[in-house]
Amino acid sequence: MDLHIVLFEPEIPQNTGNIARTCAAIGATLHLVHPLGFSLEEKQLKRAGLDYWHLLTIVEHASIDEFLATHTDKNLFFFTTKAERTYAEVSFPPETFLIFGRESAGIDEHILVQQRQRCVRIPMRGQARSLNLSNSVAIAAYEYLRQTDFPGLMGQGSLHHLNWEEQR
Prior knowledge:
With 168 residues, this protein is of the alpha/beta class. 30% of the residues lie in helices and 16% in strands. Strand 2 (29-33), helix 2 (43-49) and strand 3 form a beta-alpha-beta unit.
């Protein structure tokens, strides 16, 4: 899959674990940009990802500057509450990087100013500061998947095997 989820300096292991589980379930690559607010060995991180770690591709980057320097020509979308456009107004290209900032502060403002045309937001009430990071990633990732017709994914439910006529 050509979907990349990028976390700039994540702080909470449970959020990163939940995001890792989402990435594993949909086949997205998870990029972790250092410094991290936790160790990749923390049990909260592993517990949140459960038994999905073998399905996950993780790429680590030394810093935000290093990530941006090596990916400047990629299709980058920066999620921030400060953006003018919503994620639903964007047509995501085949290879896309969805970028999210720290839980406590988001993406640094100087980056948002430089990347203004690439910034998008998830609509919410004005009184709400932000959504949980793992929820935001899931919303954005599934919009990308919807737009690309859910490549490589299939329904896992068993209801399609039921004989609905017998159930009446």
